[in-house]
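Encode chain A's predicted structure.
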Amino acid sequence: MFDQNEIYEQVLFKSLGPFTQLKSASLVAAGTHNQGIRLDSSEGIFFLKLNFDHEKNILLKEAEGLEILRKSTFLKVPQTYGSGRVGDYNYLLSEFIPSGRYQLDYWENLGIGLAHLHLTHSKEFGFENDNYIASLTQKNLHSDSWVDFFIEQRLEPLLGKAYFDKLIPLEFLKKFKAIYSKMESIFPNEKPSLLHGDLWSGNVISNSSGQPCLIDPAIYFGHREMDLAFSRLFGGFDSRFYDSYESILPLEPGFEARIGVYNLYPLLVHLNLFGSAYLPGIERTINRFVR
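Encoded structure for chain A:
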């Protein structure tokens, strides 16, 4: 059984080599699944994410996502140094990002940076392998149809899980599925874009220079409006972010009416993770499209 310092020392050893010495460690964040720890070492300051999830590659997939993001946008993305497993813990060691006050062009740079990310295209929707959103598996089988991908790889797995776990009744399950036949007429036809995949305000932080930094991705190639809709779900993004994004990549008319449909996915994620408090938001969207 490892004590905490022994875990930290093992992570530093595996990630940076045998001569890295731990000086101190302090907890900086704690959530439902993860702990965030600042490690001060002989090689500098690092950020360590630890969790106890049974999925042994969950933080490895996050590290891969960060690496791909860093190659695909000028926005700051933390450097990663190692990921794997120590004892019963999954770990991800990355660059420590000291926080700073927003600079005047913070929101404009975030919007332009996201547009730049979305200009990275693929021939198909999906990704080369499955990954995770929070602690849930995210299926990424390739498809040349956004509607098929969205239904089969995003909605159906989580809808089925919610029904199995008795979070939704059979009657609503059937009503939910009735929206599928309407989706061809809802979504505009666009190329698959590289997405952050979990773009809420908690996953964008300000670095020491006061510029935006992207963390905790759930990447795949999808419809670019998914990221923008997700950013609207819990708020926290200034209007300058959306204006600057559209100055590079204008949205097709009717986006406001589509937001709720895109957000069926993150709401299903939250329903499965946190319970029935998120069901009314799903019901409102379904009731708007299915009579």
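The two ends are 57 Å apart (CA to CA).
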